[in-house]
UniProtKB/TrEMBL annotation:
GO biological process: carbohydrate metabolic process
Keyword field: Disulfide bond, Glycosidase, Hydrolase, Signal
Name this protein carries in UniProt: Alpha-galactosidase
SUPFAM superfamilies: (Trans)glycosidases (SSF51445), Ricin B-like lectins (SSF50370)
């Protein structure tokens, strides 16, 4: 991830402050009603996978209480498989290593959670977390475990304290489990429960009443959303939680294939719901969140109506700092693979999207850089209190002034001021390279030293001056980029042959909407991947970074050139004109 992109996102924050929302100055300290805000906390998954112990968890909770609680991080959550014994042969997909009670309900594995002995479950852990001023959360799976199904355990009737009976017989796990609806990503682990049966509903009631008795404040319900969407189970669990005598925040996962239309079916049922697949510490994972964040903002679902409060699209945890790997029997052992700029971009996007902020790194080894990033007061305030956050639709620019050479001035006029018609301008946008409207670029020579590429549409009058960009040979990229741009056909393009800067949507100061319409911003051409373009044989100008092509079209205006940013911000508006 390049610095220019990071600055662009921070500019978007500044722009949002000025254009898109009002931001009251309210602290995220204790006393704020965080039930109305995006949830914030720490989750064990990114640093421990499933192997975390009671000692590691409570040590982490103490760190959160001391250093992060004052910044609104109030939940500490044990992620999945807390009921699995950590013994040889046990791993994510293994079967037969889980601890269940006589009613087929998962209970903490005593080899990892010693306070759970004698049937106490998470009661003692929750008490310790609450004594720190924090809230305690757990991860649970859909319906019924395969282990309980195979054992055909009886079902607890919470109204009598005995086995559930109906129609003169005792009902058991194999009466309610639906093997054909197993969890897609853990098919040997869990299956759906038939909620149309009173016995199925009785089993789910016994689960969530037990969690409440333990003192749980946050439930992450997995394998019920996205590609595993199970609206029946979500609806019934939500009904059970709503009737409890204590509030429990209800979170849904996973987010694979989630759309705003699907999420709208959750109205009033949950408090947060994943909208992407698992996010790990790769730029590809981070980049995949931009379009999703845009779509949910456009659908006006940030926030939405939730269970006894608001609901929030969840971009997943923040895998920053000291981490483990996905699906391993190992705790934290490596640093985050994202560059610092990529980490800043991720935290900025999550904040602007008003996603729940669940830090995933090992808080016991948190470094100062990571700490300052996840507690950045401006980003946290945006996450808490901003509104109407949308992808910014356009940026504009104008001629900088008659202080350059004749060639420079001419090229500026060619780009920004189309002829004598001041009611229309050339709009420069990004589109699919398969779009026939992107075919219109060709090379033209200025003299024996200079070359440019120009845009001419079919049928355009020959006397109409084309929009032209200068070709500029890029410098060799740094060794960190692993690409020597100067040795291939990719090029930088500037608005003239003299300046060493490229048009960028990243001004270094906050400006008003009126100023923005008048003042473009230029940044140094660094040869970053997002500044590289290739002129293809089919007359398209393709971005090496986004894979999209430049299209020029007429737009209404006052003589200024408009950069159409209706595409996702991942395309980066540093069109180097």
């Amino acid at each position: 991830m390049k610095t220019s992109l990071f600055f662009f996102f921070f500019f978007c924050c500044s722009l949002s402050l000025l254009f898109c929302f009002h931001l009251p100055r309210v602290s995220s300290s204790a006393g704020v009603d965080r039930l109305k805000l995006p949830p914030r906390g720490w989750n064990s998954y990114d640093s421990f996978c499933w192997t975390i112990s009671e000692d590691d968890f409570l040590t982490s909770a103490k760190v959160v209480a001391k250093y992060l609680k004052s910044h609104g991080y109030e939940y500490v959550v044990v992620d999945y498989l807390w009921y699995r014994r950590l013994v040889p042969g046990a791993y994510v997909e293994s079967l037969g290593f889980d601890v269940i009670d006589q009613w087929g309900r998962m209970v903490p594995a005593p080899d990892r959670w010693p306070s759970a002995k004698s049937g106490k479950g998470f009661t003692e852990v929750a008490k310790e977390v609450h004594s720190l001023g924090l809230k305690f959360g757990i991860h649970v799976m859909r319906g019924l475990s395969r282990q309980a199904f195979d054992a055909n355990t009886p079902i607890l009737d919470i109204t009598t304290g005995r086995a559930y009976k109906e129609s003169g017989r005792e009902w058991r796990a194999q009466d309610i489990g639906i093997k054909e609806r197993s969890c897609a990503w853990m098919p040997h682990g869990f299956m759906s429960v038939n909620t149309s049966l009173p016995a199925g509903r009785a089993f789910l009631s016994s689960l969530y009443h037990q969690y409440a008795e333990w003192g749980v404040d946050f439930i992450k319900h997995d394998c019920v959303f996205g590609a595993d969407f199970n609206l029946e189970e979500i609806t019934y669990v939500s009904r059970v939680l709503k009737k409890l005598n204590r509030p429990i925040l209800y979170s849904l996962s996973p987010g694979t294939s989630v759309t705003p239309t699907m999420a709208k079916e959750l109205k009033g049922l949950a408090n947060m719901y994943r909208v992407t697949a698992d996010d790990w510490d790769s730029w590809g994972d981070v980049a995949s969140h931009f379009d999703v964040a845009r779509d949910f903002a456009k659908a006006e679902m940030v926030p939405g109506e939730g269970l006894l409060g608001n609901s929030w699209p969840d971009l997943d945890m923040l895998p920053l700092g000291w981490l483990t790997d996905q699906g391993v029997n190992r705790g934290p052992h490596r640093q985050c693979n994202l560059t610092l700029d990529e980490q800043r971009t991720q935290m900025t996007l999550w904040s602007m999207a008003r996603s729940p902020l669940m830090f995933g790194g090992d808080v016991r080894k948190i470094d100062m850089t990571t700490y300052k990033l996840i507690t950045n007061p401006t980003l946290l305030e945006i996450n808490d209190y901003s509104s109407n956050n949308m992808e910014f639709p356009y940026v504009t620019g104008k001629i900088l002034g008659p202080t350059m050479s004749h060639l420079t001035r001419q090229s500026r006029i060619s780009m920004l001021n189309r002829g004598s018609d001041h009611h229309h301008a050339r709009g420069v946008g990004l589109t699919s390279c398969k779009d026939s409207n992107a075919n219109g670029w060709s090379v033209e020579s200025l003299d024996q030293y200079h070359e440019q590429i120009c845009w001419r549409e079919e049928g355009e009058q020959l006397n109409q001056e084309p929009l032209c960009l200068y070709k500029r040979k890029p410098l060799l990229a740094s060794t960190n980029d692993h690409v020597l741009y100067g040795q291939d056909s990719r090029q930088l393009f500037t608005s003239d042959d003299g300046v060493k800067s490229c048009l960028d949507a990243s001004p270094r100061h906050k400006i008003t909407s009126r100023e923005w319409k008048k003042q473009p911003s230029f940044s140094t051409c660094k040869g970053d991947a997002n500044q590289m373009w290739k002129l293809s044989s089919n007359a398209t100008l393709r971005s090496s970074y986004s894979g999209l092509c430049v299209r020029v079209k007429q737009v209404k205006g006052n003589g200024h050139s408009a950069l159409d940013a209706n595409r996702s911000v991942t395309t980066n508006l540093s069109l180097n004109l």
